[in-house]
Amino acid sequence: MINKKVPGVIEALEGVSDNMTLILGGFGLSGIPENSIAQLVKLNVKGLTCISNNAGVDDFGLGLLLQQKQIDKMISSYVGENDEFERQMLSGELEVELIPQGTLAERCRAAQAGFPAFYTPAGYGTEVAEGKEVREFDGKMHVLEYAFKADFGFVKAWKGDTAGNLIFKGTARNFNPNICGAAKITVAEVEELVPAGELDPNQIHIPGIFVQRIFQGALYEKRIEQRTVRQRN
């Protein structure tokens, strides 16, 4: 069985360079590849195109890359929690492509499955469909969307083995599964890394065939993006 384990985040990100396209998992701050993002900041790579559901917050997640002006373009679905993102977008410093959330997920999954493109009704008749091919199916208009083409994909899982098999926990099982295999190289960071064969096959969410590098993560903060509590009586 192929051993996908690398010693750590430094080795996991070997080959990342300026002007690459990256896909990153996570929803809000749940299930984001914290260690990989921190290493991208240290590498100081520039001119990045980042594909992710959102851009983190000002001082965490992809917000750290935005602070350092490392991202030239964001392809996202929701970006409402990041003031620096808003500032850069409105000033023209950051190119932004906003797409429907389901389309974002499906463009990742299409890349994972090897489909070059697909038709979806989402976005028809809006700015999303401008300049794109449209076609009617069963009396309903659909927009042609293309699978993403990315150099590296970064995901965060709860548990994995040295063969690259992954198990996600709770809501961290968001965009991460679709991103595995959607780039030329998928890097998985996990909270717990075990030898191959120790995971229950019935519990595995993503098989190792979709992962090229895996490492044991550390020092996860797991921040809560919005804390809402009931008022005391």
Automatic annotation (TrEMBL):
Report whether 4Fe-4S shows up as a keyword of the record: no
Query: Which InterPro entries does the record match to this protein?
Result: 3-oxoacid_CoA-transf_A, CoA_trans_fam_I, CoA_transf_BS, NagB/RpiA_transferase-like
For this UniProt record, the keywords arranged alphabetically read as follows: Transferase
Q: What is this protein called?
A: CoA transferase subunit A
From which domain of life does this come?
Answer: Bacteria
Which NCBIfam families does the UniProt entry name for this protein? pcaI_scoA_fam (TIGR02429)
Tell me the organism. Winogradskyella vincentii
Q: Which GO terms describe its molecular function?
A: transferase activity
Q: Which PROSITE patterns match?
A: COA_TRANSF_1
Give the protein family: Belongs to the 3-oxoacid CoA-transferase subunit A family.
Indicate whether Transferase appears among the record's keywords: yes
**Pfam families reported for this sequence:** CoA_trans
